[in-house]
Amino acid sequence: MKTSLLALLILTLSFNATAADSTVKESAGKPSVFKDVLKGKLVALTGKRVGRYEMAAEPNYYAFYFSAHWCPPCRAFTPKLVEFYNAQEGKKKNFEIIFVSSDTDEKSMEEYIKGDVMPWPAIAFRNLERIKEIRKYSTQGIPRLVLVDREGKVISDSYEGKTYVGPEKVMNDIPTKTAK
Fold this sequence. Notes:
By secondary structure, the protein is an alpha+beta fold. The chain has two domains: 1-30; 32-177, Glutaredoxin, CATH 3.40.30. It has helices at 2-29, 35-38, 72-87, 106-115, 132-135, 167-177, and strands at residues 42-46, 49-53, 61-67, 95-101, 122-123, 144-149, 154-157, 159-160, 163-164. A four-stranded mixed β-sheet has the order 4-3-6-7. The chain has a three-stranded antiparallel β-sheet with strand order 2-1-5. Strand 3, helix 3 and strand 4 form a beta-alpha-beta unit. The radius of gyration is 19 Å and the shape is globular. The protein starts with a helix and ends with a helix.
């Protein structure tokens, strides 16, 4: 009797783990709500130039970084984010940071990308106004980092309600929140 109860328990746990794993894989296999929004609208630093960028594979999580070169708190935080991102090199990354500039012109945006050697893609300046699906995450001040899943659900934010907790909180959340 004990053996059959134990076998039933093991079988049930095994089934639940397999079902949960399959749900995660199915979600990761479907295109995100951002796939079409971002297609053809990204740029990245290649050497000393900012040029067109296409993602090789779509991440499970996006961290939208709202910032600008003219913002002193942004300029103080960006090097920390660059260091964090570069430290992920060689690790299995389930996320991608996307820079969403609040600069007033393309030259300023590109100088900021180059000056801080941002290793992640950015939304091209000419496309910034056409991305309301992403702009909706930036209703308050900058710097702002917002981690979202493929469906657009906010996982971590620089704001908790109207309280500013800062982008460091989100940066520190990324490794644990995206490890699933």
